[in-house]
Amino acid sequence: MTEKEIGTMREKILSCEKEIKKGIIGQERIIRDVIIAMLSGGNVLLEGEPGLGKTQLVKTVAKVCDLKFNRIQFTPDLMPADVTGTTLIVQEDGKNTFSFEEGPVFANMVLADEINRATPKTQSALLEAMAEHTVTTGKVTRALPSPFFVLATENPIENEGTYPLPEAQLDRFFFKLFMEYPGKEELLSIMNITVGTEVPEINKVLTGDDILAAREMIKNIPMSSEVASYAADVVLSTHPESEKANETCKKYVSCGASPRALQCIFMASKAEAFLNGRMNVSFDDVKEVAYKVLNHRVLLNYEGIADGIDIRKVIDL
């Protein structure tokens, strides 16, 4: 790739970010992080109280990127086949044959809305799709469209009627992001868009092919051995048995982050550098993305949960 091609692609991505901001007031860092996850081929878990615009964010991203979009509303009675699809018996020319009816997971971008309201059995129906981008039913494995992303929303676990996500599924999420309440000015701007006459026109800026091309560019961004070593130390600092761990980690953590976390930090920090107009990864890039990669992968023990330990105190940046 030439410098000109890389610059053109970066401008496209930044134009996409600008277009998304027309439909989502505030949450600017959240928008940037969702884009980074997409460019890295990762899935995103969005947590926040109801009404903060989590669903609207995902729908706006899908529209701007011109991707096939499906939404799955997770409820306690949702079954795995409602997500992946099911095999039906159909009659053709007087004969009964089996036909697979694709579920809503067969899309470029899947919104798993309120994922923690479904039972663990149904939550796990997304595991293969998120990790391998395939769906297996019976003896047949079917590929999902490319690019493929899952953007899941969840209500805080303290809310009634929620099920904690299994550790294996949490590890499949590239980032876990927390949406916060908007300020006064942002609230007024939201009112103008939602109940006023200022309806923004949101245009399609990117395509799936653009995302795949940008992903390949980002993979080739160099990372020095010093920065790579620093990123590895950050992950090791979440393991209570490691010499890199601080006292808080050793006392309150039961399980640290997996090697997949380091893969995510590498890709996310490269995407962060790319969007900032640099073709090399800095220590600050790693610091910017590390917490969002690690916050859902570090498991506290009972004492840590009881004492309300903030994961930020565990991670040494």
In short:
This protein is an alpha/beta fold and 317 residues long.
Describe this structure in words.
This protein is α/β, with parallel strands linked by helices. 44% of the residues lie in helices and 18% in strands. The protein contains 14 helices and eleven strands. The strands form four sheets. It has a five-stranded parallel beta sheet with strand order 2-5-8-1-9. The protein has a two-stranded antiparallel ribbon with strand order 3-4. Strands 6-7 form a two-stranded antiparallel sheet. Strand 6 and strand 7 form a beta hairpin. Helix 12 (259-275) packs across helix 13 (283-294). It is globular, with a radius of gyration of 21 Å.
Count of DSSP strands? 11
Proportion of residues in helical segments: 40-55%
| CATH fold type of the largest domain | Rossmann fold
The number of domains is: 2
From the helix content, strand content and strand pairing, which structural class follows? alpha/beta
CATH C-level class of the largest domain = Alpha Beta
Which regions have little confidence, pLDDT < 50, spanning 5+ residues? none
Distance from first to last alpha carbon: 33 Å
Please name the fourth-level CATH homologous superfamily of the largest domain.
P-loop containing nucleotide triphosphate hydrolases
Largest sheet: 5 strands, parallel
**Could you say which overall geometry the principal axes of the C-alpha atoms support?**
globular
What is the CA-based Rg, rounded? 21 Å
Biggest sheet: strands side by side, in what order?
2-5-8-1-9
What is the overall number of helices?
Answer: 14
Mean pLDDT: 86
Spell out the helices and strands N to C: HHEHEHEEEHHEEEHEHHHHEHHEH
Indicate the proportion of strand residues. 15-25%
